[in-house]
Amino acid sequence: MDTTRINELLQKTVEWNKEAWFTKFDKDLEVKMLMEEVGELYIAYAKNKKLEIVDALCDIMFVATWTYYKSWDKVPNMFHIIDMSHDPIENFCMSISTELGMFIWRRGDENEYIYAIKSIIIISYSILVHLHWQEKADACYAEVVRSNYSKFVDGKCKKDKNGKVEKWPNFSQPDFSKIIWQYD
Description:
By secondary structure, this protein is mainly α.
């Protein structure tokens, strides 16, 4: 399976975050942002909202990619896809919550954390591929990257008091309807 396109998009994710000045590694903020996205995934799954599931998986990849980069100073390489032919989303949500929760509680080993982050990226992408074939998975992630770039005005972004990028009036939500038109 060719992973060239998704690897290019992961690089764009790192570029976006560099432009947004997210350079300081804050483990608590990283975990909080990941858990927020996992919560959105779980809610979308519980409501069987396919487009929201895709959005949440892409957002998880976006946050986890930057976390990985800040920790290892390199872009994660998507070198394989995991078979996700069983119903993986609920187990995935529970696993991420448990892993990140245990990590916070133990203040675990940094390498263990980074391994978990890379696993989150690979599993999220694998679920996308399983749900929508690889071309559509890549196109969905590209749409999230595009949407995140719409948060910039004149090459700048604003952050809220928690350090997250705010959405300016020109922000546009990801639109998966042209990519995955047969859902929802």
